[in-house]
C-alpha cells in the first residue's frame, strides 16, 4: 500500500499520444471518453485535476491524410494547428456529457521561465481549479520552435512536470504504453522486471530509460525519468503506469502498487 499517495489532492495527469490512439494512429475515442468520465469523477470527489494531453500532431497527421508524423518544423506546426482544434472538440464533447467544464491552456517554455508570465499562468490555473474547471494543457506547438533557444519543452512529459511545479502539485501521473520502469526494455528482453519503487534517481536509474516511443508520438522512458526528476525536486510524487485501462487512475489514488512510483522524498 502506497499510503503517501492516498492524500494526493492536486493531481496532474499526462497521457501520451500512444495511449490516445489505436496502433494505426487513429484516435481512440473509447479511451478518450473513459478519460473524461474518470477525471470528472475524480473532480467530483474534490480532487483538483489538470490534464496534460498529447495528441495534437497525431490527430492532425491523420486528418491531413499523412502516413506518419512529419519531421519538418513547418509541417509539425501545421499538423498541430489542425489537430489541436480537433482534439479539443473531442474533449469538449466527452467532458460535456458529464457536465464537466474544461479549459484549453497552451504553454511555451518561456512562460515558465519568465517571472511575470509564470505568475500570470499560476493565477489562471488556480482560478480555473477554484471554479472546478479541468484545464487541458498542451505545448503551443504552432509557435514553439527548436530554433529559438530555450523556447520549447520538447515533450509533454517535461511539460507536465513543469506544470506540476507551477501549481505545486501533489502527484504527477504519466500514462503511457508501458506499465512502468523496467530493469531493461521488456519489448526486447523477456527477463526484464518491473521496478515498483524508486527512492533516488541515480545515474543507474537514468541509464534504464531506453526510448520506446511510437511513430505517432515523441519521447519514451527517458523523458519520463527526467519528468520524475523535475517533480521530485519539487517534492511531487510521480507514478508511471500503463494507460490501456483509464481506471488505473483509481488504483493509483487508492495506493495500489501500480506501475513505478518515484517517491517525492
From TrEMBL:
Question: Which keywords describe this protein according to UniProt?
Answer: Amino-acid biosynthesis, ATP-binding, Cytoplasm, Kinase, Nucleotide-binding, Proline biosynthesis, Transferase
Name the major location.
cytoplasm
Location(s), subcellular? Cytoplasm
Q: Does this UniProt record's set of keywords contain Transferase?
A: yes
Record carries keyword Thylakoid: no
One GO cellular-component annotation of the UniProt record comes to: cytosol
InterPro entries (UniProt xref): AceGlu_kinase-like_sf (IPR036393), Asp/Glu/Uridylate_kinase (IPR001048), G5K_ProB (IPR041739), Glu/AcGlu_kinase (IPR001057), Glu_5kinase (IPR011529), Glu_5kinase/COase_Synthase (IPR005715), Glutamate_5-kinase_CS (IPR019797)
Single Gene Ontology BP annotation: L-proline biosynthetic process
Q: Which residues bind substrate?
A: 54, 141, 156
Reactions mediated catalytically: L-glutamate + ATP = L-glutamyl 5-phosphate + ADP
Sequence positions that bind ATP: 14, 176-177, 218-224
Enzyme Commission numbers on file: 2.7.2.11
UniProt xrefs under SUPFAM superfamilies? Carbamate kinase-like (SSF53633)
Which top EC class is given? Answer: transferase
Domain of life per record: Bacteria
Pathway listed for it? Amino-acid biosynthesis; L-proline biosynthesis; L-glutamate 5-semialdehyde from L-glutamate: step 1/2
Record domain Aspartate/glutamate/uridylate kinase: where: 9-239
The cross-references to Gene3D superfamilies, in alphabetical order and at most eight, read: Acetylglutamate kinase-like
Q: Which PANTHER family match?
A: GLUTAMATE 5-KINASE, ISOPENTENYL PHOSPHATE KINASE
Q: What protein is this chain from? A: Glutamate 5-kinase
Amino acid at each position: 500500500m502506497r499510503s503517501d499517495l492516498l492524500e494526493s489532492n492536486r493531481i496532474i495527469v499526462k497521457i501520451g499520444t500512444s495511449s490516445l490512439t489505436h496502433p494505426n494512429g487513429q484516435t481512440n475515442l473509447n479511451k478518450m471518453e473513459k478519460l473524461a468520465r474518470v477525471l470528472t469523477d475524480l473532480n467530483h470527489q474534490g480532487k483538483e485535476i489538470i490534464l496534460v494531453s498529447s495528441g495534437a500532431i497525431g490527430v492532425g497527421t491523420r486528418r491531413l491524410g499523412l502516413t506518419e508524423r512529419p519531421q519538418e518544423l513547418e509541417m509539425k506546426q501545421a499538423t498541430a494547428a489542425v489537430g489541436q482544434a480537433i482534439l479539443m472538440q473531442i474533449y469538449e464533447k466527452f467532458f460535456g456529457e458529464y457536465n464537466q467544464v474544461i479549459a484549453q491552456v497552451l504553454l511555451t517554455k518561456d512562460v515558465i521561465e519568465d517571472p511575470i508570465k509564470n505568475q500570470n499562468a499560476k493565477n489562471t490555473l488556480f482560478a480555473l481549479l477554484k471554479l472546478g474547471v479541468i484545464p487541458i494543457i498542451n505545448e503551443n506547438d504552432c509557435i514553439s520552435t527548436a530554433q529559438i533557444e530555450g523556447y520549447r519543452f520538447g515533450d509533454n512529459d517535461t511539460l507536465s512536470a513543469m506544470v506540476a511545479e507551477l501549481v505545486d502539485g501533489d502527484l504527477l501521473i504519466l500514462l503511457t504504453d508501458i506499465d512502468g520502469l523496467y530493469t531493461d526494455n521488456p519489448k526486447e528482453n523477456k527477463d526484464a522486471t518491473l521496478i515498483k519503487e524508486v527512492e533516488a534517481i541515480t545515474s543507474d536509474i537514468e541509464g534504464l530509460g531506453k526510448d520506446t516511443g511510437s511513430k505517432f508520438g515523441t519521447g519514451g522512458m527517458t523523458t519520463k525519468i527526467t519528468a520524475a526528476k523535475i517533480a521530485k525536486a519539487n517534492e511531487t510524487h510521480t507514478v508511471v503506469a500503463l494507460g490501456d485501462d483509464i481506471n488505473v487512475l483509481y488504483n493509483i489514488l487508492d495506493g495500489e502498487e501500480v506501475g513505478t512510483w518515484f517517491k517525492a522524498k
